[in-house]
Amino acid sequence: MMNNLFIEPFQKFLVKVTGFLPHLLISLILIMLGLLVAWLLKRVVTRISQLLSIDRLSQKLGLSQILEKSRISESLSGLIGSSVYWIVLLAFVIMGLDALKLPAVEGLMTEFWLYLPNVITAGVIVIAGYLLGNFLGRAALIASVNAGFAVSGLVGKFVKFTVFIMAASMALELLGIGKDTVLIAFAIVLGGVVLALSIAFGLGGKDAAKEYMEKMLKEKTDEDDIQHI
Amino acid sequence: MRAVQAGFAKYFPDKKAILINSDGGSLDGTHEIVEKTVIDDFQPLLIDQRQSILSKISVPYHGIPGKGSAFRTIFQIAKELGVKACAVVDSDLRSITPEWIDLLIRPVLDKGFDFVTPYYLRHKYDGTITNSIVYPVTRALYGKQIRQPIGGDFGFSGKLAEFYLEKDVWGSDVARFGIDIWMTTTAVANDFKVCQSFLGAKIHAAKDPSSDLSAMLTQVVSSLFMLMEEYKDKWKDVKQTAPVPIFGFQFSVGLEPLHVNIEKMISMFGLGIADLSELLKDILSSQSMKELVEVASADSFHFSDDLWVHVIYDYAIACHRKIMNVDHILKTLTPLYLGKVASLVTEMADSNADEVEERLEALCLAFEKYKPYLIDNWD
User: Would you call A138 and B268 a contact, using CB atoms and an 8 Å cutoff?
Assistant: First the structure.
């Protein structure tokens, strides 16, 4: 009776524990190894990035200023190194969890590797979108000022944020977050902004628009006779 | 065409001459005009010594479309023919006379000069990019007081044409635009003998209404700054400037009134300072930026020479360091340039030609005075 009630389950438990311990050990070893490999790779990647003058490029592209504004004290090469560190460590942690052979975490590794390229691509799209948005926004701002538009600042910001929002929505779609919702929301917001501007300009600002157009037309006939070259 | 033909007949009757139309495939009938235009009777021009016939070559140039590629073709033909002297003139000139040919070529043939730059009579408000940037900067950098470094009409020796051809620039922006300042700077920086010829008035065909000031300014200034990179070891050593010999009979004429919209220029300046301040802060020194804001907010508009010199030198340094896209850097200069032009036009409203030249001399001296600032901040 005692044997059936206590000893047998305990024996079964012991068998399971002894069967599980090697997996746990392997898992811990993998995580420890992951810490070491991630640290090493972080050092190597950071150094290579520094040698490739990534920080100077970041300064030129305006990324360093963004980091400063976001109160991130690390350089871009440091950030790339840190990203590699966390990706490698996460991979080893998932391998470690996989090694435990627990039904709940089984297949996690496969899913992680399948999802990782999407995360990296989305990151690249967001960064590229930010840079392109900055570049085009700046170009639009300068062109507007040189054309004498009074709302140049608004034009520059509109171009910059439109490009960035488009890039962000592409990235989110790639990550499978909200898919159609993001696209629809984006379309609604953009359409709404355009409609609001049209109504504001057409109704609220019709006198200002008239005045502006008159001024523009007057200026067309009021050009300088100077030959600059 | 007729002026060039008469020029050769009158001033170089005993020399072999060839007229080249270096054409980029224009469809405006230039080729036909070159082929058909001839002077049948030289008597009304008081020319009776005509001994040689002017040969004409009308060739399409190849490569990148632009004035530079057209000039390259001329240099190549000059080299192949082993010419002693060449003159190049813009095809849209309305004020060219036969004397121009003499004035551009004779200093090379008889006086041993390698490069002849034009010296024009222009309205006091015209040529503002030349007057406020190109002339003073070229003079301060390379030490030669060449009044029209980007005049467009030049004379040069066969030796210099060969030297130009050897330069590896024909795939760069020099082929598209900037050939004028490139020719002048290359001649000066490589110690060729340079002089000027007084050509009188310069009148172009009506300007292209689509020509964009910002694009024009960017092209000229980028060429100037690009040459600063190439000749940095030369201009850093130049400590003082020297006058350049000038040939031809100098005269002056009355000034036609010219319409200038100063209020619009000042308003563009104000808009630039307000909306581009974030970019300007990266390009300019904090002192220049502070002073520009003060100029924009002052009751009476005045853009001093000292501030303008520092602005131009700051732009040169910013382009050298490539702190952002160079095209973007240079395009932000347009409102500041308009501010300086508005200030100069206001100051020179009642000035005659000599007083205008004195005013520009003061601007040039400011560029020379602050050259150490440029050198100190270059590296």
Answer: no
